[in-house]
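Reviewer 2 asked us to include a model.

Predict the structure of this chain.
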Amino acid sequence: NILPNLYSRLSQMGLFRFEGITQRSVILEQREGVLSLLPSVPLGAPSTVGTRENRSMRSFAVPWIPHDDVILPGDIQGVPALGAGDTADPLVGLMTRKLTLMRNKHAQTREYMEVNALRGIAKDGAGVTLYNYFTEFGITQTSIDFLLGTTGTKVQQKVRTVIRDLE
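Predicted model (structure tokens):
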């Protein structure tokens, strides 16, 4: 068997945790806390009053990614199991093979979607953009060119800019 490469680096890293849900959409609530410094006031003067946090909710439809396969009589009729001679049941071997292929396709689709989620975009297996999280959450995407091919580039300054932006 020549097996294809199964990309699973993100799964191995454990960056995404799978939690099943029973709904067809997910609602995310966002609270925008404000860091405030309190001023000192003279004794007996009125105190400062707290303000409410801004809250917003967003609903995201959960994509449905079905995949079916079928076994036809011609798939097993007169076809011995690979490397087993006539002793193995060809139907069991073919069912196992098709289920393994289906599982691998779902796993690769999930890995692809997780890679794109790290980029801030939800895409399906066909490359169709489902959500752009920068747009959805009103965040400006920044891009920092390190200009590594240019002499005199201050790489440490670029790295600090990236760290500041991440923070």
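The chain has a mean pLDDT of 87. The beta strands are 25-32, 54-61, 121-123, 129-132. We have added this to the supplementary material.
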